[in-house]
Write a structure and sequence with these properties.
- The complex is a heterodimer.
- Chain A is of the alpha+beta class.
- Chain A is 25% helix and 27% strand.
- Chain A has two domains: 83 residues, Roll (SH3 type barrels); 67 residues.
- Chain A has four helices and nine strands.
- In chain A, the strands form two sheets. In chain A, strands 4-3-2-1-5 form a five-stranded antiparallel sheet. In chain A, strands 6-7-8-9 form a four-stranded antiparallel sheet, with helices on one face.
- Chain A is elongated, with a radius of gyration of 22 Å.
- By secondary structure, chain B is α+β, with helices and mostly antiparallel strands.
- Chain B has a domain of 56 residues: SH3 type barrels.
- Classes of the chains: A alpha+beta, B alpha+beta.
- Chain A: Keywords: Cytoplasm, mRNA processing, mRNA splicing, Nucleus, Phosphoprotein.
Chain lengths: 178, 125
């Protein structure tokens, strides 16, 4: 096997979601399912999701890895279980009904337009100024953008949206024909 | 709770004269085009590899976020084990900032662990 740290992201990707045994320096070995491999340090993140115990995560530093053996393959189910452990901060959008999502999307779109920000609906996404995308459920944390300044501007705008910050007030449109 | 011991040695601060970008850092060596491990030079292959790289790094950063403020078991070289509260990592994963580190010499209130001395970190969710 090629040296672990010399592998490419494609090669590391082969191990992700597999149940593996990682052999490391000083005769240590670790078993678990691979959640990810850090491309900068080649460190392996292993998750153990036994039903009886609390989930445990082990991070094996890339420089210490001597060998990785696949014990068994993962499935869609194991992948989504792992992801739910790590991406717990995301509200799963399926808990919100389509109507509720539509209503929130409308509210955010109107707020942005009232603030002179060009925004277009693209299915479930909101495309802002051809630079930023807001995905369901349209909270400040759901924005993605390559430009840090635009991201910060739009996020603080969303935080100040009176409709979604707990108030029942509707914003009066102050837009003229612009 | 054990009494913290005095600080034995302060860590070196960042370089005062540079902008933080060190061409000799392992990260630059890993990512600079002349040493990238991608096999082909065609742009479609690079895009896919870059996408994987970004996704893997993002998941790793989320792991570090999850580890923050948790009590972590560090397995170090020479069969040494220590427990501490994980604070932060630097961008190249070369140093970990930890608090309340239980060492054989006592509890260090704040410490910087060199990642090169660490084999693994374990924590429970």
């Amino acid at each position: 096997m090629q040296r672990w740290v010399d592998m490419s992201p494609r090669q590391w990707q082969e191990f992700i979601n597999q149940e593996v045994c990682v052999s490391a320096r000083d005769q240590h070995s670790f078993t678990g399912r691979v959640f990810t491999v850090d491309p900068v340090s080649a460190s392996v993140v292993l998750v153990s999701l036994d039903e009886a115990e609390r989930p445990a995560v082990t991070l094996v530093l890339g420089h210490a890895v001597s060998d990785v053996q696949v014990l068994s393959a993962g499935s869609e189910q194991t992948l989504s279980r792992m992801r739910s452990v790590f991406l717990q901060t995301h509200t799963p959008t399926h808990t919100l009904s389509a109507d509720e999502l539509q209503r929130r999307r409308e509210s955010v779109r109107r707020w942005l337009q009232d603030n002179r920000i060009p925004v277009q609906e693209d299915g479930e996404l909101l495309r802002v100024a051809h630079a930023l995308t807001i995905s369901a459920p349209y909270r400040p944390g759901d924005c993605s953008c390559a430009n840090q300044i635009i991201l910060a501007r739009v996020q603080s705008l969303l935080e100040n949206n009176p409709e979604t910050s707990g108030d029942a007030l509707t914003t009066e449109s102050t837009q003229d024909s612009g | 709770m054990k009494t913290p011991v005095g600080v034995l040695r302060l860590p070196r601060g960042p370089e005062p004269n540079s902008r933080g970008f060190d061409p000799n850092s392992p990260r630059f060596q890993a990512l600079c085009p002349t040493s990238l491990t991608s096999s082909s030079s065609s742009s479609s292959v690079d895009v896919e590899e870059q996408r994987l790289r970004a996704e893997q790094r993002e998941h790793f950063l989320r792991t570090l976020l999850l580890m923050t403020d948790k009590r972590v078991d560090f397995q170090l070289l020479e069969k040494l084990r220590m427990r501490g509260r994980f604070g932060a990592s630097d961008i190249d994963v070369l140093n970990f900032q930890v608090s309340d580190l239980e060492t054989p010499l006592g509890v260090q209130k704040e410490a910087l662990l060199r990642c090169h001395d660490i084999i693994s970190c374990s924590f429970e969710l």
